[in-house]
Amino acid sequence: GQQLNQSPQSMFIQEGEDVSMNCTSSSIFNTWLWYKQDPGEGPVLLIALYKAGELTSNGRLTAQFGITRKDSFLNISASIPSDVGIYFCAGYERGGSNYKLTFGKGTLLTVNP
Amino acid sequence: NAGVTQTPKFRVLKTGQSMTLLCAQDMNHEYMYWYRQDPGMGLRLIHYSVGEGTTAKGEVPDGYNVSRLKKQNFLLGLESAAPSQTSVYFCASRDQNTEAFFGQGTRLTVV
Fold first, then answer.
1. Contact yes or no for A100 and B45 at CB 8 A
2. Who's near A89: CB < 8 A, 6+ residues apart?
3. Residue of A88, A94, A103 to mutate, testing the B interface (most B Cβ within 10 Å of its Cβ)
4. CA gap B76, B19 in Å, rounded
5. Chain A within 8 Å of B104 (Cβ-Cβ)?
6. Given this model, what pLDDT does residue A102 score?
7. What does the alpha-carbon distance between residue A85 and residue A29 come to, in Å, rounded to a whole number?
8. Averaged over B25-33, what is the pLDDT?
9. Partner of B41 at 20 to 30 A CA spacing, among A86, A104, B65, B90?
């Protein structure tokens, strides 16, 4: 089955620093998603990517759809304490016959004020 | 707007007991999913459904059963709970034009 490898597993940074995380897949996708999970809550969609090479921003967050269609990257600029949480990537083939939605293992982000 | 609602939010079971977790969505989504979240393991897919009356196995289906009798509801059953099923369970729903929305989770402890 498809596997998503997300790295790093955890990050400890100082407030104001930039953060990068990435996700690679054994399968080709036409949709990449990035979610954030706050403590005690369910994951919430941050950014959706639908085209290889696409670069999309949401405030201080920027995500990219890799040109090989097997990877994606998420960057957070000028981190703040409320960025703390678990970030998950997910990928799937929109319009295909495989309806599974598989997630990476997540990146736990801690921001020190 | 309720979105995806999971009940109960917390539950403690004794080994061998059975229970059903309910997921209800009010967005008329076709696809629904059940995941479990364990430390360091991320979100692992248990079962999913692509429409009313259909179900399919995910990555970790053993020990669980599901039913989708109504489009808006997706039930996850544990027939004989085991301590290894202690976890946080999340339900999600989506359709062809909308990405997945998640519920708030159910924290289950099996003692």
1. yes
2. A4, A6, A21, A23, A32, A33, A34, A35, A72, A74, A103, A104
3. A103
4. 8
5. yes
6. 87
7. 25
8. 96
9. B65
